[in-house]
């Protein structure tokens, strides 16, 4: 931040053109290296990845998971931990990379796909999702590599978990088998006390039934659970995911899950006070000593939430309690005049009474969506990532696309391109209930839609967000493959990452990705000289190209190995400037 006079422009790179090929492109003067692709063994003596995907479920549990998504870099001395290699490394070149592995591709994860379902294959899928914790460091010469560390671990769909907070003892969470696993881990957050919180998003897609005439309950309907066979087919080999065989298991999913990356034996904790929805990410802020957690429910017509801890977070921790277990969950209402209100989801308040069928606070949290419906929250066009500008405290949310509008905060009737909205909490108090909002940008292709107001390069379907400490806002796109054939998207190419100056609203294209992939998980080192980005689902089916098959796994993409005998692999890309400068400047 310049302290006097004119500020230096935030964006100092030459934009890259729209991408159409099967590689990652970054501006002149930058390099992009690939690390930890799916299947990388967590330890140097672990099982090497097999390019025909014949690794077993046990091997997968000892390897990096599939479909990298949100991630956080924890420098090794974040919490006074040792620095590796006798002090050569500092905060900016060694630490733990903790990343979500969101979902799997049935055609690509095993040699012969998933036409024939076996318990072993389903276990491999279950072991490929969740979270990967892996140490990384920068070598002399600048490249990054993963390293052996006692913290390297996988948390997956069969890892034992516990529940905490007001709904932990709710009878609906008492299913037939002990609580295990996290999955559908889209994005995440990092707490002020140095833990990682992974968010369960599209978990409902895993619940089906052998009986395709299964009568869907009201609650199943509200969260999108359907009868019959699912895309992932877990219900055919694991009774937990068959809604007839265990009607309660579904209530154990849709939570924010806290993991201590510096304790390899830590049991992940599902924090029920933050509500049960399809959580995209969870942005942690502090205000008046409290911890505030912002989270969006990514489905068209769903809502934006925030949790405010009851006590100052340091005081709660000093008492041996989690600041995430006691507090108030609010949901956002956006008014026409540019103001907004956070509406409390508290049992006994407003419509959430016994008379209206609410049992207690646990009931409000288990049925968070219904509670938010009842108080009159504003339906949004698919809320994805929420992030805060560290220079101003302003919050930004990507609304990727959807059909919730038109309403004040979602002005388009059919929003195929998405927008980015921002708000400021009144008096700078994030624990309060009033805010002021406006729309930062209506995304899209201005040659197709006159409403598009981008000052710079065209993009659509914003999803990932990240702010560096200079206040640059990084935006990643996820144009789903169902949208790629739309006329509206014909000029926008492969998914991309852009950099925005929030003061001038200028937006410039920084990176384009390979075929079938979305760009996500933007995360920088504290010195802004390394930027990690995840390439998720390269090679996934696209309407334009077709679908990969077990016989032809490279039908869409062969990134990153481009090995004729291999297959596409989700991976992390490490971006640096050749001159060692600050990324984006
Ligand atoms: Fe998994 Fe909403 O993206
Ligand atoms: Ca995704
Ligand atoms: Ca996302
Ligand atoms: Ca998305």
From TrEMBL:
A Pfam family the protein falls into: PhoX
Region (Disordered): 73-93, 542-571
SUPFAM superfamilies in the record: NHL repeat
UniProt xrefs under PROSITE patterns: TAT
Record-given protein name: Phosphatase
